[in-house]
Amino acid sequence: MTFLPDSAVRPGRLAVGVVLPSPAVRREQKLPLTEAARHAELAGLDLVAYGDRPAAGAPALDTAVVLAAVAAATERITVVSALYSPGLRPPVQVAEQIASLQQVADGRLVLGVGADGGRERWAAAGVPYAERERRTDAALRLLPRLLAGERVPLPYGPGYPVVEPEFAVPMPPVWIGGTSRAAVRRAALLGDGWFPSLASAAQVAEGAVHLAELSAALGRPAPAVIVGTSGVLGTEPGLPTGADLAADLATAHGVPPERLAGVPVTGGVREAAERLHRYCGAGVTRVLLDIAGGDWRRQVELLADVRDLLR
């Protein structure tokens, strides 16, 4: 099954997906990544995502390998990188990884792209932090040409080779992650989607207006808007509250807790559906939930119930 274009997502109805569980959750709940992805697909979700963590200061799974395994283990669900960092890698390696994933995913791949992740991440990869924006933009401009099999001169000055890939595959949709003005501009210029995370519906709506204005000025259609958020579903005792999750997220991201108040999705299925539905007014067509507690399999089943209410 191929990627569902934005025109096929009915207005006011969100496509719903889940971020694959963290290593700690997978160990604790004996949940392999491929089993988690199959569970999300069988539950009826639309998307499954895995986060990119190269050179994060500690050994991490290679995102391309993980997404290839997930794509091979599933048949229908859209597979999303969240977020892949092309600026950390040589352009030829980026093209090889994405072309390979396109082949395995058979049209179900979405390339979520990020240009941040902190100074330590870029330093560990041997890439100057100040170069992250330029390198990301350069990679996104080169990638469609490389995937098309064109002869491409690498943009590093005299002495660098002209490469001609042996493959030719379709360019996957590109979702640009981040809430900064630079990220919104990159989405307007180079993206098929804008992918902010941990932002309220009001913040997303404001960014979407700016995105539409920039896109119109560039003569491009406004990209789709996709939201990444965090939450725990259900009402049984012992689950973290929205305030608990907001405090944890604020600590992790170094921001005041009040900035994230109301962002986590919590409560029963109907309450969660109502909270996610607010994003529809901001023009959001898809949402990805990072499950922050409880039994992961059960949380996915509850999220599928939320999806059914939204649709």
UniProtKB/TrEMBL annotation:
SUPFAM superfamilies in UniProt: Bacterial luciferase-like
InterPro entries: Luciferase-like_dom, Luciferase-like_sf, SsuD_RutA_monooxygenase
Keywords of this entry: Flavoprotein, FMN, Monooxygenase, Oxidoreductase
Keyword presence, Oxidoreductase: yes
Keyword Hydrolase in record: no
Location of the Luciferase-like domain: 33-229
Protein name, as recorded: LLM class flavin-dependent oxidoreductase
Biological classification of the source: Bacteria, Bacillati, Actinomycetota, Actinomycetes, Kitasatosporales
